[in-house]
Amino acid sequence: MGTSASQLPKDLLSEYQELTFLTKQEILLAHKRFTELLAKDDRSCSNPRLPMSRILTLPELKSNPFKERICLVFSTSDNKDGSLTFEDFLDLLSAFSDSATSDIKSHYAFRIFDFDDDGTLDRKDLERLVNCLTGDTDETRLTSDEMKQLINNVHQ
Prior knowledge:
mainly alpha; about 60% helix
């Protein structure tokens, strides 16, 4: 913990506490985990980005069916590649923390489920959501009729 604290200035730590739903300890742990995931060459950069492939190795995301969407929603990358800065990473952790408000949680849930980023949850979004939940393989995929019926029930 000593190295994490020394790498994160106190004024920045205080700012992160004010802007997130995370405690000081949670922020320091997040910084440590983020730094450990970075390539050694990137650790000396002023504002490094963690590639989505590295983020997806976190146990909390590994088996989440929406893991790629989560990274894309929280990423501020102009490349839309799902890479995260430390601040993006904190935003992600903050939104999923127990202390986050239901408004924050529902805002991000909506954005994650809005696959085409058009501000609405339409039939195509719902179909992709169902495929994420059931698995998109021949064995688990719903038939066209089953999908239509399910979406009609949900979309009414």
